[in-house]
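Below is how a single chain appears once it has passed through the pipeline. First comes the sequence as given, then the structure the pipeline wrote out for it. We keep one example in the README because the format questions we get most often are answered faster by looking than by reading.
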Amino acid sequence: MTADSRHRPVETVETAFDIVDVVKRADGAGITEIAAELGLAKSTVHRHVKTLESRGLLVREGDTYRISMWFLDYGIHVRNRHRLLDVARPKVDELAAETDEKVWCVIEEQGIGVHVYGAEGRHSVKTHARIGQRTHLHQFAAGKAILAHLPDERIETILDDSGLTAQTERTITDRDELRDHLETIRDRGYAFNHEESVTGVHAVGAPIRDESGTAIGAISVAGPANRLRGELLTDELPDLLLGATNEVEINLAHS
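Resulting structure:
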C-alpha cells in the first residue's frame, strides 16, 4: 500500500455522506432527486440509501428519505464532552436575561465555528443561527473573535481553507483587510459584526481563551441593527461580554 493510497478518500464513504447532506439540505428527498443532485445513477443511490436506512441513519416516509434521530444522539454526545459548555452555559443565560437579546456560545472545530448553545432574551430576533450550525469564522462576530486569538500560522491555514466566502454583501472577503481587522480585534479584545452574517443584524463577540491566550470558544450577543448601535454596541455590550468571558476563563482554569 502506497502513502497516496492510504490518504486517498474512500469514494463509497464520500458518496454516503454526500447523500446524507442532500437529504438534510432538502429536508427530505427521494431517490430520483438525490441522483439528479449528485449526478449519480439511481441504482447507485438506491444501494447507498438502503444501507443508510438499514443502519438507522435515514428513515423512509413513503418515497421520501429523511435524516433520522440517530444523529441527535451523536450530536449531544459530542456537545456534552466539551467542558467549556458546562462552564459557559450559566453566563450565556445570564447575559440573555440582562441584555434581552440572543446570546450564543460558539466553539471552533477544524477552522469552523460551531454554535453549541444559545439563550434568548425577551426581545431576541429569529435568524438562521441554530445549535449545531457550522459557519466560517470570518463571517460573524464570535468567529472573528476566535480567529483573532489563534496562532498566526493557524489563521493562515484557516483562511486558505475557508476561501473567504461572503455570507452577505458586508462580509469581509479581502485577505489583507481581514488581517488588519483581526489585529484590531486582538488589540481591543472583542469583535463586531455589522450585518456581515445576517442583513439587519449587529453583534459583538468576545473570545474565551485558555491559559496560553489561545481562543477555545467565544460568546456573542446579537440583535437588530437599529437597536444594537451607538454606545450600547460599542461600549456597554463589550464590557458585559468581557466580564462574562473572563469569569468563564477563570472558572475553566480552576475547575
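Confidence is low (pLDDT under 50) at residues 1-7.

See the next section for the split statistics.
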